[in-house]
Structures are given as C-alpha cells and as structure tokens.
Amino acid sequence: MNQRETEGTIIKGYSGFYYVLAGGRLYTCSLRGKFRLKGDDRVFLPGDQVRICVMEGDKGVIEGVLPRRNELLRPPVANVDQVLLVFALAAPDPDFVLVDRLLVLAAHAGIQPVLVWNKADIASPERVAQVQALYRDISIAQFVLSARQGENLEGLKGLLEDRISVVAGPSGAGKSTLLNALAPGLSLKTGEVSAKIGRGRHTTRHVELIPLASGALVADTPGFSTLYLPDISPQDLPELFPEMVPHLGSCRFASCLHKTEPDCAVIEAVEAGQIHRQRYDHYLMFLNELIERERQAPKGRKS
C-alpha cells in the first residue's frame, strides 16, 4: 500500500470520521488509537490543521494536529480569522442589542468582526444610514448588500479569500441565502421569515466548514436570538468597546465603571457626542448583567 503524509484542514467531523481538505482534495480520515483514547471531543475541531497519512484513494489517518491560533466554543471552530455578523436591515428589523452582544463576544475571543447588513433591497435609505452611523467610528468593516438580488457581494468575496470565517446572526437574517449567493450551486436550505414571530426558521443544523472556489472556508451556524455574555468581570467590559478605550484611564477614579461616577471621561465623551448614546446604553445593560451575575455567584467565586 502506498502511503504518504500531507497537511490539511478539518472540514467536519461526523460519525467518528473527520473530513480533511488537503491540496484541493477531500479525505475521509480516522484517528490513530492514541487520540481515540483521550475521549475529548474537542481534540479535533473544524478548522484544525492536521497531518494525515494517506492510506488509499481518499482514505487517510490523522497523525497529529498543529497548534491552534484560537478556538470558539459556540460554534466549535478552530483557527478562525473573522466572524461575519449577518443582520437583516428589514424583515426582521435588526436587533441592536444582539449586534453589540456579538461584537463583545468577538472582541473577547480576539477575532475580527465584520458587519454584514443584508436585505438592502427592501430597506429604507434612513435605516442604511442609521446602521452605518452607529458603527462608523469603531473601525469595523461593514457591508451593505442584498444576498437575494446578488448586489454588492464583490467586496465581501474578496475579504473571505483564503481565510476561515464564521457566519453568525439571528435566524431570518439570510445567512444561508448569503452563502448560496457567494457560492452558486451550494444550495443550502433557506427558511422563510415567520409572519407571526418575525424570525426565520432555523435551517442550519450542524457545524461544517464550506469550501468556496476562492479558497475561503466558511462555517454557517444555527441561528439564535439570545446569547449570554462571556465569563468576564465588570471591570474588563469597557475594553471590549473600542470607542471607550481612548478614554479609559482619564477618569477621576481608577476603579470607575463609567456608570454614574463623577468626572468620568467616558460619560463626558458620550455627552460630547464622541461615543454613540445607543452603544453606551447597551454597555450599561451588559455591565448590569455582569454585576448581577457576580453578585449571584457562589461566595468565593467571581466571574
């Protein structure tokens, strides 16, 4: 039997096998016994770079995994370059609390977020201007497009090339429609938005990296409408709001949480219009959640 080693990327794991993309070819791989004995389902994740021994045809065995740059828990994906936060501009209207919550999660994970505003074909110019104004000053790439009409997709295609991206956002935002537009022939299932609940039906059931012709790997994730904040302390939250960072350290009190304290540089920046009021209101909302979580934590344990 002719055997050779090569390196590739895990696309998905299913029924005890891992599907590894290497050199433009997909291999169905099993694990060496030493890995199976560990019993840890996070030893290998989609996105992991692995060394495989090609046994015969498209069959192989995973011999080792290379060090990870990062790792997401939900969805479980390794070596993520960026997360595309996909929201509809209309039908359903964007949930800005959820937008900011996902931005906090991306910042905490150290992964670059990209805002993708979908359904531009049915949105008012006022809504487009509103979303762009909200996030213009925090150095986040934004794309306004229509996946259904195939409009303004080129810039996003270029950003995906040769990178691993995770697509996240609420159901009904058009994530699957967007992936179908980026990779014609993919034919992912798409769901209609319920007129009763104003959200889409979940159409994505498992985590899998989808290879695009450009060399991009994209993970579609199940839609969701709520999400818990990461396990961080209230004192660390301001660091996850980029527009607050330049003002930190300029408050009267070193322990300032930028809530009601006098001579707070962040509050002064809000009042001067340097920080968007809505973003600051969401900061206060998240801050209160973290303070309450810390208060309810068992004695001796802090978030």
H/E element sequence:
EEEHEEEEEHEHEHEHEEHH
CATH superfamily of the largest domain: P-loop containing nucleotide triphosphate hydrolases
| N-end to C-end Cα span | 54 Å
CATH class of the largest domain: Alpha Beta
Count of the domains: 3
The helix count comes to 7
User: What sort of overall outline do the alpha carbons produce when their principal axes are compared?
Assistant: globular
Could you say which structural class the secondary elements and strand pairing correspond to? alpha/beta
Q: In percent terms, what proportion of residues is strand?
A: 15-25%
Rg over CA atoms, rounded to whole Å, is 22 Å
* Unreliably modeled segments: 192-204
- Summarize the biggest pleated sheet: 6 strands, mixed
Percent in helix: 10-25%
Overall pLDDT metric = 87
What oligomeric state best describes the polypeptide chains here?
Answer: single chain
Walk me through the structure.
There is one protein chain. With 303 residues, the protein is of the alpha/beta class. It has three domains: 62 residues, Nucleic acid-binding proteins (OB fold (Dihydrolipoamide Acetyltransferase, E2P)), CATH 2.40.50.140; 150 residues, P-loop containing nucleotide triphosphate hydrolases (Rossmann fold), CATH 3.40.50.300; 60 residues, Orthogonal Bundle (Ribonucleotide Reductase Protein R1, domain 1). A six-stranded mixed β-sheet has the order 10-9-8-11-13-12, sandwiched between helices. The radius of gyration is 22 Å and the shape is globular. Keywords: Cytoplasm, GTP-binding, Hydrolase, Metal-binding, Nucleotide-binding, Ribosome biogenesis, RNA-binding, rRNA-binding, Zinc.
